[in-house]
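User: Predict the structure for this protein chain, please.
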Amino acid sequence: MPDLQRRLLLVEDEESLILTLQDRLESEGYAVTIARDGETALEEGWHGAFDAIVLDVSLPRKSGFDVCRDLRGRGVHTPILMLTARGQLIDRILGLKLGADDYLTKPFEMLELLARIEALLRRARTLTASSADAYAFGGIEVDFRRAEVTRDRGAIELSALELKLLRYLVEHRGSVLSRDELLEKVWGYDATPVTRTVDVHIASLRQKVGPEWILTVHGLGYKFVG
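Assistant: Here is the predicted structure, written as structure tokens:
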């Protein structure tokens, strides 16, 4: 069970889902704050001290995409898990590009939601530089200790998860990394989720640092060549 002090901001406007999620999350030991529209979510997320935010995309007054973008723009680095009913890959990538750390497509199983939240919290606790504190490739400079990425001295915004993914790729550059290995080492999942989680995050990371550095090895996984 999670630490009783873990605080979650749940942003959702569907009352039946709010009741279901709040009841289960609180039974798991989370302290849950509810926001039913995007503007309230932005204010809560900005001023509140939350350990994670579960953010629906389709909201009144301000979309989840806008909330995520504005929170990151205000310097809020709280881990964000986006909930979306959209099936298009580009919609998921958009959320990640705006600063979300993970996504979950509706409808979803409650156990998977709990696993995603717990993984986000674990990553937030363990996001520290492990071996190399800095790395440079193709005009891109990465300072893992400061969590800063720049290209030609211009900032590249990476989420905490994207930074951890990039670090793992850098540390294993030249090696073919399977999706299962990445899910275990970067996401912290014990079992493989039935999603395209790795593919979506790799696609988002490629758009930010350049597709030429992360190669697809068909049938096997990915290889970093920076």
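The chain has eight helices and twelve strands.
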